[in-house]
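From the pipeline queue, job 12 of 40. The input is one protein chain; the requested action is below.

Action: predict structure.
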Amino acid sequence: MDAVERTNTTLIFGRPDRLPVDLHNFQPAAAAMGIPLQEVFRNGELLAESQIRAWREFGHDVILLESGTSSSAEACGVEVVYRDDAAPVATRPALSSLEDVEKLRPLDPWTTFPWSEILKATRIVAREIGDRAYIIGRGDQGPFSLALMLRGYEAFMLDIALNEKPHLIERLLDYCRETATRFAMAQIEAGAHATSIGESPSGPDVVSPRHYRRWAFPHQVRMIGAFRAQGKVIAHHICGNVASILDDFVATGAQITEIDHKTDLAKARDAARGKTTILGPIDTNLLAFGTPDAVDAACREAIDTMRGNAPFHTGFILGPGCALAPETPDDNIHALVEAARKYGRNDDQP
């Protein structure tokens, strides 16, 4: 099987020849270019080149293409600072009050920076290696996360806690869902096999399960459902320990559910089986600061846990639990990729 066949087989819970392996490596890939990271993240050609170089070096099956977690926020008017040694970071929110939601307007992903540069990168990568690697063009932040960035972290947390203007909160979430959907769909139109959203601020490490189910979950379901209705594949990422919302997380309907090392993998496996493919969960701190042997051991443990008593490996893509740090050593990345080949084989594959 090639990488695309292997990944597609995994997503329908079939029997791949081995587990696919993903790299969430936009930062180390950019760092390997030898120029300030902000130059890479502002330029679609450079972003594409960084990902293609990394794929040639590591030979991973799944490319998760993005430039950080602030591209949609910047497109919507949030002030963003580009840095030389790390991903861009959002600073000043776009909305000083919930009433400002009335000023928000629909955006064209193909002409709005930085979306336009990211889509350019997706087109290049898809054209150059899209027949040999499964490309997930990240749609950046999902509805809840984007709303939080537009309004500002503390202000939005206070808005939903007080719930004094629920109609305006819903208006903001509606706008953010529609905006996120537009960019994520453009990623697929640009040639990606699938897309992905990040909703980490909606997880239990930030908000209560009650607030997750009230404000985030319905919009995640609607957005993901729009992709599924068109036969498109979408991944969904929430950082941290998601045990208390695990069933809801799976019930959003995403074909790929991204988890990190803080969530009990056996519980995630049982909740996901036959419903969604798990992607992750290797600790990014281990990948950045551990040894290749330690990475190998963590990967083997995760692979064994995910297989459980099943007759063959399926419904699992091995990868980092979140974005790799810029300084992650090549040897550790190689160890991650090689672990899928060593321990994830289905030798009885017909």
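Job complete. The chain has a mean pLDDT of 97.
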